[in-house]
Amino acid sequence: MASKRSAACRDGILCAAAELLEEHGYLDLTIEQVAARAHAGKQTIYRNWGGKPRLALDAMAYKASTIDAPDTGSFAGDLRAVLAGLVGKMGSPGKAAMLGGLLAEAQTDPAFGQAFREAMVQSRCRLLTGAVERAVGRGEIAADIDRPVLLDLIYGPVWYRLLVSGEPLDEGFVDVLTKQVLAAAAP
Amino acid sequence: MASKRSAACRDGILCAAAELLEEHGYLDLTIEQVAARAHAGKQTIYRNWGGKPRLALDAMAYKASTIDAPDTGSFAGDLRAVLAGLVGKMGSPGKAAMLGGLLAEAQTDPAFGQAFREAMVQSRCRLLTGAVERAVGRGEIAADIDRPVLLDLIYGPVWYRLLVSGEPLDEGFVDVLTKQVLAAAAP
Amino acid sequence: MASKRSAACRDGILCAAAELLEEHGYLDLTIEQVAARAHAGKQTIYRNWGGKPRLALDAMAYKASTIDAPDTGSFAGDLRAVLAGLVGKMGSPGKAAMLGGLLAEAQTDPAFGQAFREAMVQSRCRLLTGAVERAVGRGEIAADIDRPVLLDLIYGPVWYRLLVSGEPLDEGFVDVLTKQVLAAAAP
Amino acid sequence: MASKRSAACRDGILCAAAELLEEHGYLDLTIEQVAARAHAGKQTIYRNWGGKPRLALDAMAYKASTIDAPDTGSFAGDLRAVLAGLVGKMGSPGKAAMLGGLLAEAQTDPAFGQAFREAMVQSRCRLLTGAVERAVGRGEIAADIDRPVLLDLIYGPVWYRLLVSGEPLDEGFVDVLTKQVLAAAAP
DNA sequence: CGTTAATCGAGACGGTACGTCTCGTCTTCAT
DNA sequence: ATGAAGACGAGACGTACCGTCTCGATTAACG
To answer: Which of A7, A124, B11, C135 could join C140 via S-S bond, C-beta 3.0 to 4.6 A?
Structure first.
């Protein structure tokens, strides 16, 4: 069981880390800054998180609220809701610098890569699997659709705009993307 | 004008940088390592490239061959050719670590971000604009299709698999993606 | 009142401290090592001794047997007996590292300096004051001899060899030193 | 050959180290403090000195003027001159803390011990060997005197007072010590 | 054809952050 | 209610690189 002291210290560190991530991005985040802002010892961070990658991942999760995937009755509605939530969460300033750094780290450190994917990919896949199956049941989309590629088609463009092309993640983008994904998946 | 000596030195440095990028990824690449392997002074690197990001970008370009976008007579053929070329280039081991690091740097440093996008995004957009317009002319895809989102739909899933989800970039993926993009763009 | 438990714990700590002093010297002695070897908590040590210097001093006293100063009937005999005892105690390997560290600490921390001098200097002065006065009574040494400097002349060379010059503290040294001190003090 | 820059940097670091040695003693001297006060990088210190012990030794030598051993025509005069010089040099406040720390280090680290002894012992032995031989020639002291123990008899009490007993190193002490050493060495 | 001005390699420099170690205090838990 | 166990804030350790700055040695272009 975590003691009262541990919990408070943990919160202070995650809070400081989250702030600094927003301010400077992942690459320019330093353990020393986090420790100083949280009035914590560096060793406490290394003891509990083991390094920058896991701390940053935890700090992101700490500040992140979950995206909800309501059952709107149509695949278009479900999809739009998830995309809108995703874009709203990722579009805020500073998020790109954060995610890009974590992404880079994930390529280098396999253990961290796995944790990153669990947090960023698998959990979000689960958001849509229900909606996809319901849509198949309603005959809105082809029953033999390739599920993994469908998810790539949905999430890929969002990450691509955010990190690679730098184009805006606005409502119009969500609209057009929803429409084109529907067309791609139509039976 | 660049002398013979400058050119030889430039090549040695780019070659060393490209090797180290493949070996250790972008984040773990250091100027000192590059200088040591190329038997060059650090100053020579800073004089000619100004820092790690621009050196890495140049080193990538140095080793990279271009993707060709043949006119196969059908949008499906054109698209498959470009995707196959892209997947072939990006799928090689070590590329992910390289691109992830550059991506991270691009979020932090705006000047580098612009150079990175010119090299990685705009040049590749141009590869497909011709094919898209030809397809529109042939009536294969809707004339009022949103071009930017269509490109996101094509390139996004590739980058997403490479850097985010880590799923394999194989031929089957190219097939299914081609089919779904065609469906999405159909008139 | 000290309980049975306290006493056992105290002994274990002093024993561990004494062992580690012999093994690594004073400078490389750490409270954490002592606590670990004695299966004791660090706090127990800080509560009872307050820090490394006082613990080390106590640990030395714990393991040290006293030097006896027999009345041999002649100043030469008394002096030789004390010097032989001193050399025997100090000459054992590891003692130099211990004493050097304590000496250094004594220069920095005045309170500890006082305790150190009480343990290392004043008690040993008392060993010889009786012998000196007896020798004066017998007319072996000058009555107006400067007592403090005489003691410096006896103890100084021993410490000097042990800590400064590193020359051996052997029986020959005791012989010659005894002879020269006698000559210096002769009436 | 040392460049201009190296020399200036070397001087600044030695000067800062010497100041801090006087202020805080050897044990409380830190490389970081020295680097900060000298506006130097820590690596410069580790590159040139390799650690605290050698830096401190060099800093002492940097500030120390040499003791001269004039030929006064009598052993008493020669001896008094050397002792007065030694006491004048070692008696200044802060020196005890410095020497005590170096002494402790010398016990632990054999390589440093050798360097320390060369600087503190052998050079000072040479100061007196000439005077001793001249005194033997003049018949002032016994020809068969044990030279090493004679030097212990001279230097030992000085170090002992300084570091162990803490008694004052004043002129009276020099007088009495000179007299007693003469008596000890008389033929 | 020799002199002069660049440019190179090499690497020391002032810094920053790293990840580790130990300090002395403070908290928890079991006996 | 005492003591072991060990987490905590603090801060120095020695290392790795950063980007800048001298150095001579080697070219290369010009007088």
So the answer is: C135
- Nearest CA to A57 among A26, A80, A92? A26
DSSP H helical segments within chain C, as ranges?
4-24, 31-37, 42-48, 52-63, 75-90, 95-108, 110-117, 123-138, 147-159, 171-185
Give residue B121's identity as a one-letter amino acid code. V
Q: Which amino acid is at A106?
A: A
In one-letter notation, the amino acid at residue B123 is S
Closest partner CB to B25 (pick from A28, A107, A167): A107
Amino acid at D72: T
Q: Which two tokens stand for residue B49?
A: 């490239």
pTM, rounded to two decimals: 0.89
Nearest to D107 among C100, C121, C173 (CB): C100
CA angle B48, B54, B56 (to 5 degrees): 110
Residue A165 identity (one-letter amino acid): S
Domain topology for C2-51: Arc Repressor Mutant, subunit A (1.10.10)
- D180 and C26 within 8 Å at the Cβ level: the answer is no
Give me the residue label for tokens 């150190």: C116
Show the tokens assigned to A16.
């400081």
Check whether residue D3 has its CB closer than 7 Å to nucleic acid strand F: yes
CATH pick for C67-185 out of 1.10.238.10, 3.40.50.2000, 1.10.357.10, 3.40.50.1000: 1.10.357.10
pLDDT in tens, B117-156: 999 999 999 999 999 999 999 999 999 999 999 999 999 9
Cα–Cα dist D167/B7, whole Å: 74
> What type of residue sits at position B86?
L
B interface test, pick of A107, A108, A176 with most B CB neighbours within 10 Å: A107
Query: Coil, strand, or helix at residue D90?
Result: helix
Residues 26-65 of C with CB under 8 A from D: 26-28
Give the span between the Cα atoms of D54 and B55, in whole angstroms.
41
pLDDT tens sequence across D112-147: 899 999 999 999 999 999 999 999 999 999 999 999
- CA dist A42 and D45 (Å) reads 25
